[in-house]
Design a protein that fits this description.
Length: 330
């Protein structure tokens, strides 16, 4: 993916005025046609789905793209938690290495190839690959792309921000984490957005306590975002995770009294707020995966997989070596 402020294909060197006919020959006014794409992320060419060695264990959907319902318990056994801790560590390591590779001129497809290889080297399956037919091993969401951006042929531009969402499947369980990275020289407003989003995630994590409703998490995240007059994306939420990639637990990132399931020790779920410079409304691309802000404003995201403990929480994708190892203000 690439910003449309990179030259549009066949666009003239001097663009027309808003009410002039569009340069593309559509017959529409420029303001009603290609002007809308200026400064926006545009889709590129998606390469064929990558393969893995037969020796790597696969989730049930890997071959068909169809995800069976398993009805996994919200409270995990000690064995599942132990395996999730390992998967979480592997996911955190892959995310950190992928983030270190981010630079201007690199295509998101090249990032996908690198992340794919990192999974193979660690005997992991990249959970997004063929999940409901998603075609790639990582999600790459640039600027106003909220989530689920599909890696493609477009280059990252100096000044972009890009979210990389990594989930590994290892030893029968999933570990899910993501972070937003700077591409080259990024403007102060975008840097603050990324910082506040990371802080908002940690506020949500620190609200995890057994006996309390899940809505405490959304309240803590939304309260922090509102201090900066940022929007909290509503359409995409945190989820239960374990032997299933997406379990039944729903974690809203804004306050809703209806999100009132009580947290219990042994529950595992993701907290992954998406915070925008503008509104919370979104639009979908024709690929049925890529979600963008309706107003075209930038958005950032951070995510950890969290375990509810007897007295609080444990971050299964955090700790030393993670992109976001602890609260940034600590």
């Amino acid at each position: 993916m690439v910003l449309a402020h990179a030259p549009l294909a066949n666009a003239p060197a001097v663009l027309p005025q808003a009410n002039d006919p569009c340069w593309c020959g559509s017959g529409r006014k420029y303001k009603r046609c290609h002007k809308r794409s200026e400064g926006r992320v545009l889709p590129g060419v998606v390469s064929p789905m990558r393969t893995l060695p037969a020796s790597i264990a696969r989730p049930p959907y890997a071959d068909t793209g169809e995800v069976p319902e398993r009805g996994e318990s919200a409270v995990k056994s000690p064995d599942v938690i132990a395996r999730m801790r390992t998967a979480g560590h592997l996911a955190a390591e892959i995310l950190r290495l992928a983030g270190e590779a981010v630079r201007p001129g690199l295509t998101t497809d090249e990032l996908d190839a690198y992340v794919h290889q990192l999974h193979i080297e660690r005997n992991c399956y990249p959970s997004p690959l063929n999940y409901h037919h998603y075609p790639k091993s990582v999600c790459t969401s640039v600027n106003e792309v909220i989530c689920h951006g599909i890696p493609d042929s477009r280059e990252l531009q100096d000044g972009d921000i890009v979210n990389l969402d990594v989930t590994v499947y290892h030893d029968g369980v999933h570990g899910d984490t993501n972070a937003t990275f700077f591409v080259g020289d990024v403007d102060p407003a975008s840097r603050q957005l990324v910082k506040v989003t990371e802080e908002a995630m940690w506020h949500g994590i620190e609200a995890v306590k057994p006996g309390r409703p899940l809505s405490d998490i959304g309240r803590a995240i939304e309260d922090h975002a509102k201090r900066y007059r940022y929007g909290v994306i509503r359409a995409f939420i945190g989820h239960g995770i374990g032997e299933e990639f997406h379990g039944d637990i729903q974690v809203l990132h804004y306050y809703s009294p209806q999100n009132n399931d009580i947290m219990r020790p042994g529950m595992t779920f993701t907290i992954e707020p998406m915070i925008s410079h503008g509104g919370w409304q979104h639009k979908m691309w024709d690929d049925d995966w890529t979600a963008v802000t309706a107003d075209g404003k930038r958005t950032a995201q951070f995510e950890h997989t969290v375990l509810v403990t007897d007295d609080g929480f444990d971050v299964l994708t955090g700790g030393d070596g993670a992109v976001s190892p602890r609260a940034p203000w600590a």
